[in-house]
Specification:
Chain lengths: 281, 281
């Protein structure tokens, strides 16, 4: 995972260091996006941009999105790598000591291209349940802000031979994977955990929800206990980097990977394949 | 509040910039302390160090504390300012993309001396109740980690002519001020909000609790609703930078600043005065 940045721009300039006065560093006062780039096309870019704008609005960050967009174009123009990650970080910029945002903040824009080391998602994911419980907060839930200690602590609890960790909130409801969202088939209904108080609203999750809708399959958002999760006939993970990753086992318990039953996972993989293939043509 | 750093050391070297790969910047993966320094003595230093060590243990950050201590000594040796803030930040150091902490992390140590612009605490504090609700999380509560978006969002809700904002959790319990802890006299009993799920365990708060104990006054930690807070005969704020700050009004409602009644605030101010005076002798 120590994939180094290929190139980075800070406020339009090639740079790799920021001030320790940057509020992104001081308080995690900012947000980010991680975008898969195939053949120099940022996959699901409009959805990423929409989520970034929503996060900036929630945190009241005044970002120059036109400039950001042109800097991304500039960075991608010079890119020679076919499959790469575009990471965009936006912070409230520099400030003094004290939590109060400066009256006239100059937001920092950071754009990085990072080598993509693909996860092998063809074999199913081996998943554990993390002991750490996610924080809950109605305002911060859903947005991909820079306060990610929950994910750091939870990820540290995944043994090396496992692929992902399931994160629960303090009420014991299943919320998401450390770096992915979760879809489950329960009683022939596709469900996904309610993200109203914890978790990140995944770009790939919402893309799938829309695409399933077109196929007349409604994805139900609801509170899901770990016990209920274990009644699921199919479970799969998704994010905008690796796409779809069916779960093969949870805590060493085999997860019904017999293919004939995996109706929803198969449909999701088809949606993913179309998306990734379309963008590499 | 745009008080610039007088001097800063990053891993022992004079520097002001860190890598965008530093996990403190990427995820707020670290913690900090803000220490008042009077006549080159860091006030309540053993308590700050103890809290920092506890935070590092919780987050599993392997920091070289001997080195940190010697760097602090080095920075303070050259200091010519009588009243200054020492800010210590510790992060998990650099890492690639992905939440999982690197197997062999080299923690980053940042020490800053920052000009102290004293708040005038002699007149009572004008306080509002912030609309933003604090996140709750049993593991992260109490420690002064770098995930401080709650405080940023809440602080932005304090009008310019007010001094501090009260923060509640999502259950409506009063937790703390944006940058201070809270002590209240209710029915002649000194109480402070329970910090088991939200808030920061203040160094000054715990110093006061200990000192009041010596005076045979036990400070009770309990869940306090906003309604109960408003029955308090005295309310005062504390932190290790400004010390004690009696509350004069909450949301424009006068807060019984008639002096004869302010038994506990007076005792707290005396404790503070002794502490600050002792260290400036």
């Amino acid at each position: 995972m120590l994939d180094g940045p290929l190139q980075s721009l800070i406020n339009g300039q090639q740079a790799e260091r920021i001030s320790i006065r940057d509020r992104g560093f001081q308080y995690g006062d900012g947000c980010f996006e991680t975008v898969r780039v195939l053949s120099n096309k940022p996959i699901l870019w409009p959805a990423h941009l929409k989520r970034l704008k929503h996060a900036c609005k929630t945190l009241q960050l005044s970002v120059n999105f036109e400039l950001l967009q042109s800097e991304i174009t500039q960075l991608l123009q010079d890119n020679k790598t076919a499959d790469v990650i575009l990471k965009i970080t936006v912070t409230r910029g520099e400030g003094g000591r004290g939590y109060t945002p400066p009256e006239h903040a100059n937001c920092t824009r950071i754009i990085q291209l990072i080598d993509y080391i693909a996860a092998d998602t063809r074999t199913g994911a081996r998943v554990v349940v993390c002991q750490h419980r996610l924080s809950s907060n109605s305002l911060l839930a859903g947005i991909k802000h820079l306060n990610r200690l929950d994910q750091v602590v939870a990820s540290a609890q995944i043994p090396a031979d496992f692929d992902e960790g399931l994160c629960l909130d303090e009420q014991g409801s299943v919320i998401e994977g450390c770096r992915s969202n979760l879809l489950l088939a329960i009683d022939n209904q596709l469900v996904t955990p309610d993200l109203g108080k914890s978790g990140v609203e995944g770009v790939m999750l919402n893309y799938l929800i829309d695409k399933f809708q077109v196929l007349d399959t409604r994805v139900l958002r609801k509170t899901i206990s770990l016990r209920e999760l274990k009644t699921a006939s199919e479970i799969f993970l998704c994010n905008s980097v690796f796409g779809i990753w069916p779960v093969a086992e949870i805590e060493n318990e085999d997860w019904r990977m017999n293919r004939e039953k995996r109706h929803f996972s198969a449909a999701a993989l088809e949606i993913q394949n179309k998306l990734f293939r379309y963008n590499t043509r």
